[in-house]
Structures are given as C-alpha cells and as structure tokens.
Please model this.
Amino acid sequence: MRICLHQPDIAGNVGTILRLAACLGVGVDIVEPCGFPFSDRALRRAGMDYADRTEIRRHADWDAFRHATPGRIVLLTTAGGTRLDETRFAANDIVLMGAEGSGVPPHVHDAAALRVRIPMRAGYRSLNVAVAAGIALAEALRQTAGWPADPALASASAPGMKA
Model:
C-alpha cells in the first residue's frame, strides 16, 4: 500500500500525510511540481521528525511516477463513482490524492483504475486532503490486514505482564 500526492499545494498537508505514513508504515510518492518550494529541508520541516522515517519517492512528473511505480491507482475524488465503503482494496494499491485546490488533471483522472469518494452529508464540498488520506488509508489497511503490529499487544503478552 502506498499514498501518492499529485502536485500538492500545501506543505502542512504533506507534513501531516508524511506523519500518517510513517506511523502506519506506508510509503509516499510525491509527483511534482508542488505548489510550494520543495526541497529536502522543506520536506523535513513539513514532516517534522517523521519525514526521515517515511519512505518517500519524488517523481518529476506523472509519467515518471507511472514508469517507476507499479500498482493499481485508486483515486480519491469528490467525483468518484464508487463509495469508499463499497471499495475493495488490494495490498499493492496506490491511494492517489490530487492538489488541494484543483484535484488531478483529466489524464491522471482517466488513468485511475478506480475513482473513490468518501460519503459526506449533503451540502459539504470536500474534506481536507490529509483527513481524507487518513480515512481512506484506514479502510484500505483494514481490508488488507495491513495495519502495523501493535506494540501494546506485544508488551502485554510478554512474561510477567498482565493483559
């Protein structure tokens, strides 16, 4: 399972998603250009201390990303034809999110094998991209048994520990 950010606009959202990915053991692909100055220093600042603990791959453009990254593209989009709770994920899926302001261009939208929306109440336009990433990734990991091992359970079962 991987997360892909297509030309993200907001460094803070990238940082939040890097933290999410680090905590859950998921790799992140970033398709450039970004809507903010993107450097290793900026990446560390946006991702705090988590950026160094996340597998991050930077790609010059969409074609470079697709050439280097196999897997089914599952696009999160408000225009998705499939609800998140009806989506069946596979362990090698790439959960793709577009830029906060514009989403993804038509050629990227068309390249997705699956276009998924998170159901929301009427009258609401969209979720923050980092929140949407967390919701979708949680469902994908649940379905594929991809959650990381729980250290609290491991220590509770250690000799001399009470569960």
Remarks:
- The longest strand covers residues 2-6.
